[in-house]
Structure formats: C-alpha cells, structure tokens
Amino acid sequence: MFYASLPFGRARLVAHTRRRTTMTYGMSKRVRLPQRAVLAGMAAGALMLGAAPAQAALVGYQSQAAFNTAIAGWTRTTTDFEAIAAGTTYGAGTGPSGYTFTLTGPSTAYGDQPAVLDTYGTTSGTNYLGLNNPDGAFETGDRLAIHFTTPAQAFGLFVIGTSGIQADDIRLVIDGNTVGNAATEAGTTNDGGHIYFLGFVSTAVNISNASLEFFTDDGSLFPTNVDDLVVAIDQREPPTDVPEPGTLALLAGGALAAGALRRRTRRT
C-alpha cells in the first residue's frame, strides 16, 4: 500500500480556529387598513404566494451519487488530468483548461507547486493533481484556491488521502459555505488510498471560485491528492412559473372583494 508508507520528511504543526457564524433574518412592517375587505382578500393571496420555503443558495454534498442526481441533465465538464503530461506544474494563477490554481500554506515555503502526477492510485486513469514535493501531495495547512474560467452552478471533486483522516479534515469552501469530508471514505484505490467526494450545487447564482483546505485537528500530516474535477451548469429551458389553482382562487377572491367595495362606494 503506497499511501500507508508515504515519506513524511517535513513535520509541520498547524493551529487553526473554527468560527461559527449564525445568521438571523427578520422582517416587520406597519400597514394601515382603511379598506378591510380589499386587504383581507389580497393578504390571503399574498400569504399563499409566500408559503413556499426559501431554498439555500448553495447545497453541499459528500456523496457523488447525490451530487450527480442534483445536476442530472446539466452540461458538465470533467477534468481527470489524463491528457496532461505527468510532471506538469502550475504556478500561481495558472492551471489546466477551465481552471487556474493558487497554492498558499506551509508547502509554498519550500517552493512547492500544484503538479500533475502519476505516482499513486487515483479515482480514474493514472494521473491526478498533487504537489511537486517529496510526498507528491498536498499537506496539512495547505490551501488550494481554484478559479473557474467560466462561471458554473456546480463544482465537485475527489480527494484521495492516507488512513487516519477524520471527518472535516479536508474542506471545500465556496462563498463562505463549507462542506467537509465524511467520516467514512467513499472507497479505496488499488494501493490503499482513501477516497472522499466533496461538492456544491448552487440554486441561485453562478459560482466562479472555490478553495480546498487541508488540515487536521491534531496537526497530523496526511498527504492528499485531488482528481476528477467537475463543473456543471444548467442550460436547459427554464420552467414557466404558473400559479397553483388555490393561489388563483385566493387572488380572484381579493379582486372580487375590491369590486364589491367599489360598487358599494358608487351607490352611497
């Protein structure tokens, strides 16, 4: 098992602080009701229109199957690094077609750069993205900023690491939203590497940047590689929003109430 025997030539201790941000949303307004009959009918319709729960702008995934279900029918592009020569390195702000990479963290002190390698097992083919260091992999404390040259609505990838990785040791971050690796790997490579999937699907806006963070709670060093980057966008014809029958009935009731009040006013 190659992953079980990777050289750990540079011991590094990384301290980090987790922050939790809690958001609360509130809305209030004061309304005078000089025409109660009209407002009652129209308020009922407005309540029905606002009854649907709000959707989150970004949904995180730890399962490739669930991620694929969420983007079914979308136009997608997968980068598996097979068409790129092993040994290719990417300096800050460069990358393969569709991406640019910028590495920060302890590895940069040694001049390490993202690189296409074929040393260890991976999720597809023989090539993957690691670093041009003795371990051939990202290490504790590293952060890989990923920029999409074309904005997308979904992004996912596989990370492959050694045994001992705990839940949330590897994290994908987009627009302040974070999804960490699951406690249990999705599978293993032919040489004992542990495979995890991380992804996000946007339900509101396009995304163009992500970052992948590698660290552990106890500062342990777990070399990790990346493969099969996926971007996707929904280019299908958007559905036409049609009010439901109940909503139409309530709005019609409001209109009838308004008409009745106008007739009453004319008679007086």
TrEMBL record:
Which branch of life, at top level?
A: Bacteria
Domain (Ice-binding protein C-terminal): residue spans on this chain = 241-264
List the Pfam families. PEP-CTERM
Which InterPro entries does this one have?
Answer: Ice-binding_C
State the name under which the record lists this protein: PEP-CTERM sorting domain-containing protein
Q: Which organism is it from?
A: Zemynaea arenosa
